């Protein structure tokens, strides 16, 4: 049983929205403690008649350490491993989504929270953004080896063929004797330049209004 703090939806339970139902949430915590001890002021017989479920049912009350809880960064302790982090409040998960990845809370959350991403880069994120506590499953995903070429095709990956290895009818770089691409810059199969410099100079020389 995990908890998702979705601030965009109305509250339906004290478990899901403890920040907006603080009085109910804290009162329920007090009742749980006193019921477990069997001591309720003015009603010890009533407390004795209450069912006593196991204590593990109330572990969800400690929402800052429950793996799988999706809560704002402001409510997460320093040093916690998190994943599926939002960049803007309510935007949805954007960071640390790959298999086996996680980020780490580096400083005590304030208006902005310092998070160390899987790449090692430290990023300041709005503390209202949500994150899920824990690590993404399947950490051995990147270490697996494909047994044969056909297994790569099963994953939907098609072969990559160089343009200079094709015929002129198939690619602008095709044909010729030896490894030559006809003395022209690198282009796509449809004749458009592919180097980064082409994108950088798009629009140069045009009239400015």
Automatic annotation (TrEMBL):
GO CC, one annotated term: mitochondrial large ribosomal subunit
Cited InterPro entries: Rib_uL2_dom2 (IPR014722), Ribosomal_uL2 (IPR002171), Ribosomal_uL2_C (IPR022669), Ribosomal_uL2_CS (IPR022671), Ribosomal_uL2_dom3 (IPR014726), Translation_prot_SH3-like_sf (IPR008991)
Transmembrane segments: none
Entry's localization field: Mitochondrion
Keywords: Mitochondrion, Ribonucleoprotein, Ribosomal protein
Matching Pfam families: Ribosomal_L2_C
Large ribosomal subunit protein uL2 C-terminal domain residues: 65-193
Keyword Ribonucleoprotein assigned: yes
GO molecular function, one term: structural constituent of ribosome
SUPFAM superfamilies named among the record's database cross-references: Translation proteins SH3-like domain
Region (Disordered): 165-194
GO biological process: mitochondrial translation
Family: Belongs to the universal ribosomal protein uL2 family.
Protein name: Large ribosomal subunit protein uL2 C-terminal domain-containing protein
Origin organism lineage: Eukaryota, Viridiplantae, Streptophyta, Embryophyta, Tracheophyta
